[in-house]
Design goal:
single chain, alpha+beta, 3 strands
Length: 63
Amino acid sequence: MAGTFEILTSGSNSFRFRLTADDGTVVATSPQFPNLKAVVAGINAVRENAATGFVVDRRNLGT
């Protein structure tokens, strides 16, 4: 099943979101956004880009 985006208030005038898996595990958290419109835009950006994003391994494996 799909995860859940939860919109949260962060301080008096800002918002953030977190993405949780079905079992309640927090998968991702966002930075703060100044308003509700911006946090919704952030969620939409994650939805659009996550499925097509590349996986980049930045570990130094000593080779």
